[in-house]
UniProtKB/TrEMBL annotation:
It comes from the Bacteria. Its main location: membrane. It is found in: Cell membrane. It is a multi-pass membrane protein. Keywords: Cell membrane, Membrane, Transmembrane, Transmembrane helix. Pfam families: ATP-synt_I (PF03899). Coiled coil: none annotated. One of its GO terms (cellular component) is plasma membrane. Residues 1-28 are annotated as: Disordered. InterPro entries: ATP_synth_I. The chain crosses the membrane at residues 52-69, 81-99, 111-131, 137-157. This is ATP synthase subunit I.
Length: 164
């Protein structure tokens, strides 16, 4: 095709035709029956946020014990436990706010509670030298990061459980 044979672009209409393939409209959505909904829930179990927080707490305590055994330093153990608290306490507030009895499960509510969680973690980090005198930053930050990674591991495990 030579440049003279091409027709000039007519604006949005021409680009719309070239960008979007012809598709059939989706069939109307049919509501699930009670049995279908129960079968779907049984097939894809939900991940409890409280269970994830419990695992974060377990990981935090185990890492603190490892710091204590490896270093023999009580300050390192306290710093590690404080790191676990920095990860767990804001998550507890967020889960309580989002899933609690008066929790609003809207996108806006989720964003507000996420902001509260981030600010709470930041505030706990800011006051950490005051709360734990002689703070061992490595112990605190490593424990905090490992506790935060529990969420990702839980999501990976849930994905693997769904496949089997």
């Amino acid at each position: 095709m030579t440049p003279s044979e091409r027709k000039p672009s007519g604006g949005f209409e021409d680009s719309q035709d070239s960008l979007w393939p012809d598709e059939k409209p989706d069939a109307p959505v049919q509501p699930l029956t009670r049995d279908e909904a129960q079968a779907l829930l049984a097939r894809y179990p939900t991940l409890s946020p409280w269970r994830v927080i419990a695992w974060q707490l377990v990981v935090g305590v185990l890492v603190a014990l490892l710091w204590g055994v490896a270093s023999g330093d009580l300050v390192a153990v306290k710093s590690s436990l404080y790191g676990a608290a920095v990860a767990v306490v804001p998550n507890v507030l967020m889960v309580r706010g989002v899933f609690g009895p008066n929790g609003g499960r809207s996108v806006g509510g989720l964003l507000v509670w996420e902001l509260i969680k981030i600010c709470g973690a930041g505030a706990l980090l800011a006051i950490s030298p005051v709360v734990v005198p002689g703070l061992n930053w490595a112990a605190m930050l490593i424990t905090m990061v490992l506790c935060m990674k529990v969420i990702g591991v839980a999501l990976l495990m849930q994905g693997r459980l769904k496949k089997s």
